[in-house]
Design brief:
The complex is a heterodimer. Chain A has 15 helices and two strands. Chain A is mainly α.
């Protein structure tokens, strides 16, 4: 039996669909996703919720699991995500190669950083294995792998010295921003698009805020009304900046500049503050959504939406992997059919349907496992990191 | 310039000045280039990426100036996304020149031509207002895309805007067309992928030449044909002003 729909899975499902659409450049519907109305985007939401789920995984319900067992499980999860990244990268390369042959268009071999694979495979295959070579739009899972490799240490600090968790993460974040530390790419010289050393902060914020009993999590719950009042003008300002292109001139900000720029690679404070405001404001939405799903006229659409997004969120890794390949396939479709409103609508509809089918299949598969329903542990009934 | 690249030189940038680089070089012997887009970071088989080639050629051409290319290309990125990111990168890296390969992704994603033009014009104006020179690198070439109206329209719009804004554009597509045409006349038919590889080798040379011309203007003479060694020849230029 699958766990019941909840806010974490729902918003994660929302992030998955948003990322799928955002990763199809030029798509009609890509003009209406979160990134067009906000300084932060679905990637922030996805990573924040991964941190939130880490709390549920590390803490469980009832007696906490032994820390050694938790750390081992988190390392195992990192390995699982790494395997997923390698698999979807190889499938993406094959998809580009097949399309290039079928369309007799070698330009496709140069798409999305794939040309290094075909052009100089010896170092590039090493780079793919080391995650230092990432295809365009296939760069979120490498971030996730590094975060999950860091997660056991965050879980350990949280267990043995809870008050130090956020200060440690924040200190690393400040240090990284001040000295612009990042991870290099290789063999193509450059840097990771998502800098894990910076993105760890929003991951840890999710982890810390999920703890309703202690620290910032307890504080946020106690003062959520005030936080929402503070958050509303920030959310509105974010909308105005994004819609009216009111970004301040980045050359005019004081040094160290990264503290004042809206930069995605370093997930700078401007993005995080705006994102936390979004979380404060939109955390109010879930009770309204569930209430609406109980009203006679609204029941069908709202329940359908909640169930669909929650199902996607429950199987986020599978859905993300399939979604990434669907995004790339959609780009090929748009190339062939020249991207019209009709073809874009079809692409999005088919994409969401296949993502839903993936989640449904994963759910059916887990239902078929011995003891998966009756003996579902409390941990298994909470969202996975 | 290597012999195989010379046919494409006819489609290269006009002699457009890069005043901010010239001023910067008059003050110091370093040149920092911010590379956006995919091409400069492209790998050569067994020989590193093309940024090294461009750096080496420019260091020779600019008489010992220390050239540093910072690659911040994000593959698949549209011009609009690159433009926003570029402003941050300019603030952080403080380059003298932005080398921007632009248009291919917008063409493949069927971004409306006017939308592309607006982004490009605004970004060039922004760079000029911040005293950063820009060299545009045009769309990639494949035979298949010669029949694609949108691809052709984006390519043409890039050329028009570069002319309007008076910034150099390395017309990679047209250069490759000429190289292919010349090769077709003289050599056995090569695989298009192999041609592309040769094209990128030429692209590095064209970029270096466009920058050197931008710095030295009319004093820069077009290169004379050399033996086809496959290696870029040293571009003869006068000493820095």
């Amino acid at each position: 039996m699958a766990r019941t729909a909840n806010a974490v899975d729902f918003w994660r499902g929302f992030a998955l669909i948003t990322i799928f659409i955002d990763h199809i450049p030029g798509l009609f519907y890509a003009s209406y996703t979160l990134i067009n109305f906000s300084i932060s985007d679905a990637a922030d939401l996805f990573v924040f919720l991964a941190g939130w789920s880490l709390r549920l995984m590390a803490q469980g319900r009832g007696e906490p699991k032994p820390i050694g067992q938790v750390m081992l499980r988190l390392f195992g999860r990192a390995l699982q995500i790494y395997a997923a990244q390698i698999l979807i990268t190889m499938l993406a390369i094959a998809l580009l190669a097949v399309t290039a042959i079928e369309l007799d268009n070698p330009l496709l071999l140069q798409w999305h950083n794939a040309d290094a694979v075909f052009n100089d495979p010896v170092p590039t295959l090493i780079g793919l294995a080391l995650l230092t070579h990432q295809l365009g739009y296939f760069d979120i899972l490498p971030l996730y792998v590094v975060l999950m490799l860091m997660a056991p240490f965050f879980a350990l600090i949280d267990r043995v010295a809870k008050p130090l968790l956020l200060p440690v993460s924040f200190t690393l974040y400040v240090f990284v921003l001040a000295f612009r530390l990042t991870l290099p790419t290789w063999p193509v010289a450059g840097t990771w698009f998502f800098n894990p050393l910076a993105w760890q902060f929003i991951f840890v914020l999710g982890f810390a805020l999920a703890d309703g009993e202690n620290g910032v999590g307890a504080f946020a719950r106690k003062h959520i009304g005030i936080l929402r009042l503070i958050g509303v003008p920030i959310v509105i300002a974010g909308i105005l900046i994004a819609r009216l292109d009111l970004w301040p001139d980045p050359t005019g900000v004081p040094s160290p500049k990264l503290f004042f720029l809206a930069d995605k690679t370093f997930n700078t404070p401007v993005r995080i503050i705006q994102f936390l405001s979004l979380v404060a404001v939109f955390s109010a939405a879930w009770p309204y959504l569930t209430r609406a799903a109980k009203r006679p006229l609204l029941r069908a659409p709202f329940r359908g939406l909640i169930e669909l997004l929650s199902m996607l969120g429950r199987h986020s890794l599978y859905v993300f992997c399939v979604g990434s390949l669907l995004s790339l396939s959609a780009q090929v479709v748009r190339l062939v059919y020249h991207g019209s409103f009709a073809s874009d609508t079809l692409v999005v509809s088919v994409g969401i349907f296949v993502m839903a089918l993936t989640a449904w299949f994963a759910e059916a598969r887990s239902r078929g496992r011995p003891g998966s329903a009756a003996s579902l542990s409390p941990e298994r009934s909470s969202p996975q990191a | 310039m290597s012999k195989s690249c010379q046919p494409g030189a006819a489609a290269l940038a006009d002699e457009t000045a890069l005043p901010n680089i010239a001023t910067a070089l008059a003050k110091r012997r370093t040149l920092k280039i911010l590379a956006m887009g995919a091409a400069p970071g492209r790998l050569r088989p067994h020989r590193g990426d093309y940024t090294n080639v461009i750096e080496t050629m420019l260091e020779r051409a600019l008489n010992g100036t220390d050239v540093l290319i910072v690659n911040r290309g994000v593959s698949g990125e549209l011009a609009a996304g690159a433009a926003i990111r570029m402003r941050n990168e300019v603030a952080l890296e403080e380059p003298d020149l932005v080398l921007w390969q632009v248009g291919t992704n917008d063409a493949l994603a069927y971004v409306p031509v006017d939308e592309f033009a607006s982004v490009l014009s605004e970004q060039i104006a922004w760079l000029k207002s911040h005293h950063v020179d820009v060299v545009l690198v045009g769309l990639q070439f494949t035979r298949r895309m010669t029949r694609d109206e949108h691809y052709v329209a984006i390519r043409e719009k890039l050329r028009v805007i570069a002319a309007q804004e008076n910034v150099p554009v390395v017309r990679f597509y047209e250069a490759m067309q000429l190289i292919n045409s010349a090769a077709h006349d003289t050599l056995p038919a090569a695989d298009e992928f192999e041609r592309n590889e040769e094209g990128y080798n030429c692209l590095a040379q064209y970029i270096a030449r466009a920058i050197a011309i931008g710095v030295f203007g009319e004093a820069m003479r077009p290169p004379k044909p050399t033996g086809d060694t496959g290696a870029p020849a040293t571009v003869p230029v006068p000493a820095a002003k």
